[in-house]
Amino acid sequence: MTRKQHFYIILILGALCTVSPFSIDMYLPGFPAIAQDLKTTISQVQLSLTAYLIGISAGQLLYGPLLDRYGRKTPLYAGMVLYILASVGCAFTSSVDALIAMRFLQAIGGCAGMVAAQALVRDLFPVKETAKVFSTLTLVIAVSPMVAPTVGGYVTATFGWHAVFIILALITALILLGIYFVLPQGKPADPSMSLKPKAVMSNFWLVLRHPQFLVYSLVGGIAAAGPFAYIAGSPDVFMNIYKVSEQQYGWIFAILSVALIGSPQLNHLFLRKYTSEQIIKAGLLYQTFIGALLVYGVYADWYSITSLLVMLFLFLSGQGLTSPNSSALSLAPFSRHAGSAAALMGSLRMGVGALVSAAVSLLHNGTALPMVLVMALCTVTGLVILLLGGNWVKRHTSNSNSGGLSEETNL
Question: Which CATH class name applies to 3-185+194-400?
Answer without folding.
Answer: mainly alpha
